[in-house]
Amino acid sequence: MIIFGIGADLVKIDRIKKTVKNKKALKRIFCEEEISKCNKLKNAFNCYAKRYAAKEAFSKALGTGISNGINFNEIIVMNEKNGRPFIKLRGKTMVTIKKKFKKKPQINLSLTDEKKYAVAFVTISL
Hints:
Blueprint: E1 3-12, H1 13-20, H2 23-29, H3 32-39, H4 44-62, E2 75-79, E3 85-89, H5 91-100, E4 106-114, E5 117-125
Antiparallel strand pairs: 1-5, 2-3, 4-5
């Protein structure tokens, strides 16, 4: 397996707290599944911040940033039953990724948060 790209992002949780209070921004960045999951948690803003960081880290690993067919709310951060986070793609973003790679890439994600910050680390392998 060859590593195509690596991305990392650090987010200040207070900045995301302000962002998610804006309903328009919330829906532009997060999908309904993410909004539902985060709103159920006591530390909802940490949940949103980790997901935002993951989306940014993914776009950095891809090498495109959020542009050219890559949309925030189509990069979905989910968790397996054991809690392990993963990225699921849909819509135009999924189409863009399929065009970019001949075979399905392996996307690995690690998330963490501590008091004021959330961090995400993404690798894309072929």
